[in-house]
Specification:
The chain is built from 11 helices and 8 strands. It has 323 residues and is α+β, with helices and mostly antiparallel strands. Strands 1, 2, 3, 4, 5, 6, 7 and 8 form an 8-stranded antiparallel β-sheet that branches. Strand 3 and strand 4 form a beta hairpin. Helix 2 crosses helix 4 and helix 3 packs antiparallel against helix 4.
């Protein structure tokens, strides 16, 4: 008897389309608290399509239009990253304007109204709930209260863009195979949030006299040091020196805030970096051993066991799947 595994259907949160400007404004403006929107045809073939899948904490969307659109936008309770596959666009027109380029992620200004202008585009968007982003940022020691403050004018570096795309693609796989109620989807949401924080690092708030604020800032400095030196032979003393803490103070800060030691945090970071590389590399051009050594794993048996425990598959399977 043959058994088949059924996959839960991926239901669209939103799916709208049309061929006239009035319906485009009516359908799309409400999703972005739109005001004073204007749309016009470029020729006789005006049309638009918009679809979103996911849930209220993470949704992946595609927006297309053969036409022109401008207006005021605000995203409330969400962090939105978008990129163009085709077309032209400007975000935050007349203020801190960003002219979008195909393939380069662009962050919407967070929690404030801005003006946008698009023409003849095919656009991808990722909407993340601010509660999810805040939780992941706090768990990572990147935020200790206060607002989520990003600089949307930053141009992300190629490595961060690759990590972002890998995380989004992984989320789509988890959604299609497990559905919104699955553990895989839940973990994928958090991976996308972590990739966002790498794509657009949070802006540091000026330090006040509050000791808790100073401790949080030093922990952030320690994590930034680990991000920059994860591929090197890092010691606890070097991390503590970079953060301006004693070794004991560093260990206490990590344990109190992240419930793990600095070296355990570094090991988890290295495992994630190894997974990112394995997902991106061509199996014909690299090997698991090379990736493991790059991220400080010298014992292949232990690396494979830890990797499988963390990600549910052996590293050779991840590398094979990337082809």
């Amino acid at each position: 008897m043959n058994e088949t595994t059924s996959r839960p259907p991926t239901t669209a949160l939103v799916a709208v389309s049309g061929q006239d400007t009035d319906s485009a404004i009516t359908s799309l403006a409400g999703m972005y608290a739109g005001r004073t929107w204007y749309s016009s045809a470029l020729d006789q073939q005006y049309w638009y399509k918009y679809v979103a899948v996911g849930d209220d904490q993470l949704s992946v969307r595609r927006s297309q239009m053969h036409g022109y659109l401008r207006g005021d936008v605000a995203t409330e309770g969400e962090v939105v990253v978008q990129w163009l596959d085709r077309g032209t666009a400007r975000v935050d027109v007349g203020r801190d304007e960003v002219r979008m380029e195909p393939g380069v992620p662009t962050l919407f200004p967070v929690e404030r109204r801005f003006r946008m202008e698009y023409q003849d585009w095919d656009q991808r968007l990722v909407h993340l709930g601010q509660d999810l982003v805040r939780q992941v940022a706090e768990e990572s020691g990147l935020l200790a209260g206060g607002p989520l403050a990003f600089d949307h004018r930053v141009t992300p570096d190629p490595t961060s863009i690759a990590v972002w795309r890998t995380a989004v693609a992984g989320a789509m796989r988890a959604l299609h195979t497990g559905g919104v109620g699955s553990l895989a989807w839940h973990e994928a949401q958090r991976e996308v949030a972590r990739a966002l924080l790498r794509l657009y690092p949070l802006q540091s708030e000026p330090l006040g006299a509050d000791p808790a604020q100073r401790a949080g800032a030093r922990l952030r400095t320690a994590i930034e040091y680990l991000e920059a030196h994860a591929h090197e032979a890092v010691t606890v003393t070097a991390i503590a020196d970079a953060a301006g803490l004693s070794v004991r103070g560093l260990q206490d800060s990590f344990q109190r805030t992240l419930d793990q030691s600095p070296m355990a945090y570094l090991r988890e970071m290295r495992l994630r970096r190894a997974q990112e590389d394995l997902l991106l590399l061509d199996p014909g051009e690299s090997s698991v051993a090379e990736v493991a050594r790059r991220w400080g794993f010298t014992h292949m048996g232990r690396f494979s066991a830890e990797y499988a425990s963390r990600f549910g598959e052996y590293p050779r399977h991840t590398l094979r799947r990337s082809s």
